[in-house]
UniProtKB/TrEMBL annotation:
Biological process terms in GO annotation: regulation of DNA-templated transcription
Nucleotide-binding is among the record's keywords: no
DNA-binding region ranges: 124-218
UniProt name for this protein: DNA-binding response regulator
Entry keywords, A to Z: DNA-binding, Phosphoprotein, Transcription, Transcription regulation, Two-component regulatory system
Species of the source: Steroidobacter agaridevorans
GO MF annotation, one: phosphorelay response regulator activity
Domain OmpR/PhoB-type intervals: 124-218
Length: 221
């Protein structure tokens, strides 16, 4: 999963980014509104954490521009503006959740996971696809009741496919959501990742749809 953190306080941005990374997200950071608006307009994010008090373009205006451009990824507003009128304004502008500062990092991560889960039409943090079971809260997996030893990258791959409701996902899209801006990620890297996973869970679990991409066998959406 890929997240965009928009926060002009560098220390807060780094803390949130580190917590999201530890929770299995690939994270990009923007420190001012114009950069945030641009990234959210041209990149494919699964969720965004948006501060309101941003330089150049304020957070509420960024959000309104995204929604006007039909950018529908979930957005959680994270702001010191904790008055109920600010919350109403944020929700009416298109935010999916609102968390005031100061905040507990555990609550922030739980809310973000919930937004991603609901956006994919799933009610639980546990995802079952055939014999494969993913626990997105603990970042653990089992297959046929047997625990799997997965790297964070391998888990992110299965997690992303499991959230796509049976849609075949191209190698290019997978690379965008699995690798950070400073990490190399292309179709060859995705193919190598698929080979490693098939060795662990068998060749039939990850299907290849020629010309379309990859999906998990038995995931009918």
């Amino acid at each position: 999963m890929r997240a965009l953190v928009i926060e002009d306080e560098a220390a807060v941005a780094q803390d949130v980014a580190q917590a999201l990374s530890s929770a299995g997200f690939v994270v990009d950071i923007a420190s001012e509104g114009e950069d945030a608006w641009y990234k959210g307009s041209v990149e494919d994010y699964d969720v965004a954490v948006l501060d309101l008090g941003l330089p150049r373009i304020d957070g509420l205006s960024v959000l309104k521009r995204w929604r006007s451009a039909q950018r529908t990824f979930p957005v959680l507003i994270l702001s010191a503006r904790n008055d109920w009128t600010e919350k109403v304004a944020g929700i009416e502008a298109g935010a999916d959740d609102y968390l005031g500062k100061p905040f507990e990092m555990g609550e922030l991560i739980a809310r973000i996971r919930g937004l991603v889960r609901r956006a994919a039409g799933r009610a639980s943090s546990t995802i079952e696809v055939g014999e494969l079971v993913l626990d997105t809260h603990r970042m653990s997996a089992t297959f046929g009741g047997r625990p799997l030893r997965l790297s964070q990258l391998e888990f992110r791959f299965l997690d992303y496919l499991a959230h796509q409701s049976g849609r075949a996902v191209s190698a290019g899209e997978l690379a965008e959501h699995l690798y950070g801006a400073d990490e190399p990620g292309d179709s060859n890297a995705i193919e190598a990742l698929v080979v490693r996973l098939r060795r662990k869970i068998g060749p039939q679990v990850i299907e290849t749809r020629r010309g379309f991409g990859y999906l998990l066998a038995g995931d009918g959406g």
